[in-house]
Structures are given as C-alpha cells and as structure tokens.
Amino acid sequence: MAQTDQQRFRRGLLIDLLLQLSDTTKSQVLLEEYKALVEPENQDTHHGFALARATLELQGGEIEAALAHLEQLLIAEKISSLAEQQELTRYSLGQARLASGDAVGALEISEGLQSSVSLKALTLCLRLQAQVKLGA
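Predicted structure:
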C-alpha cells in the first residue's frame, strides 16, 4: 500500500471512530487533512472521503448535502461495480433518508443489504427505526 493510501486509510479509520464517539470537531479537522490527500476531481467518488464527509454532514444536520453526496457516490460505485462499498453507501444513504423524514425511502434503499454481520445488524436497526417512524 502506497504511503498516501495508508495516510488516507488511517484518517478514514480515525474519522469513523471519532464520528462514532460524536466528536465532530476533531472529525472535521481530520476530514480536512483527508481532503488534502484526495485529488479534487475524485472527492465526490473516493469512497472513504465521500462517506466520511456525508456522515459528518448528517451528524451536523446538513441532511440535503449528505443525501446529494451519498447519491452521487452510489452512482459512481455502481459504475465501478464495487459491491461491498455500495452496501455501506446504501446503508448510509438509508440513514440520511430517515433523517430527512423519508422512512419509506430508507426502507427501500435498505432492501437486500446483506454484506457483513455488523452491516446486517445496522441495517436491521435502520429498518426498525423507519418502521417505527411509519407507525408500522
């Protein structure tokens, strides 16, 4: 793995951990460092960066921006046939749709997600939240 790839990977892991801990301030600083390591023309389609940016936007209440970035990322991943990354992006898009009040959209995007055990558990939680929001 090249030096730059390692730096991006490490920052992505740290951002994910900090976001799980709801530390958006440190996450934002690391995201800016990550951004400097990704070519400007690839920032919307680089999986790690784009997903971290959208997650930070979602936590910051920028739901429409997160939705737009996740939709764009999913299209790029479908073109490149990156199935595992598509699953994670679809899960994140489901979260964003739920946050925007679109419980039906969250259920639709989460249909058929079947990657890792941890993603299956997260997907089940997302589907339950959407169903509760729909009153089902």
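Summary: The CA atoms of residues 32 and 53 lie 10 Å apart.
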